Amino acid sequence: MSIRHEPDKIDMRRRRTVKTKFSVLMVLAATVIFTAGIVHATPSTTYWTPMTLDIQPYGVLHLGVDNYFTVLGKHGGSVRSFATDVGPEIGVLPFEKIQMEVGLDYMGGVDYPWLFNAKIGSPEDSFFKGQPALEIGIFNVGTKTSGSSRTDLDVVHFLIGKTLPGDLGRVTAGPYIGNHSAMLSSKGEPKNSGFMIAYDHGFIPVKDRDGNVEYNKLVLAADYASGKNAIGGGGVGVYYYFTKDISLLTGPVWFNDQGINGKWKWTVQLDINLPKLFGK
Prior knowledge:
Elements: E1 2-3, E2 11-12, H1 22-34, E3 61-69, E4 85-91, E5 99-107, E6 114-122, E7 133-142, E8 155-163, E9 170-177, E10 193-207, E11 213-225, E12 233-243, E13 246-255, H2 258-261, E14 265-273
Antiparallel strand pairs: 1-2, 3-4, 3-14, 4-5, 5-6, 6-7, 7-8, 8-9, 9-10, 10-11, 11-12, 12-13, 13-14
């Protein structure tokens, strides 16, 4: 998963999925826009989950490459690594108070590699001072809709988040619900709902020529998703920012149901914001 790069923010992404579901994405977007626009969405992630306050800026293309693999010891028949996730995301609304991004992921080496995602919402303080960031999004929208290898998890999630006073970082939390038929435990039980939480905090600020903080060299990130299903789990890691637009994340990830994802993994995630494609 991945976050966005802004003064005190990060940029990550996780995996996502779709059916014949362009309609689902459009319904989601329409729902958010017509519900007073106090929602903020990004298929990016803080670490393992999409619980991040940041939204990809309008016209800016983001590219992420995520790897998850086992380290040390013998793991027998457990899942040793995940498919490499390569995916672009881009901001598509030219507004400050209502923002939206859409994206897709390509999971290398699997039969049904394409997953889709979208998020829309409102950043902090958009409509009044003290307003938290609010988001609604969908991810893991896949093209395989039947069988044991189906990818149509279709996880809809909601987020409320806030920057803590005193430069203590940012927290987010919210519920999620996915496809009842696709989100199962390793025992075959429907486990399609739960909650997600996340925290991030930047260190070693880098300032511009005017003395304003442009970004942080290091960012501590942690998150967790409940539920014994494919997305249940969490981790803690550190981002290193080479520039405000290029970062590398690394750290461990553990899972609530090892029967699905195997034992804990180590992740390395590269995130790059490319030059703006359109908009001012």
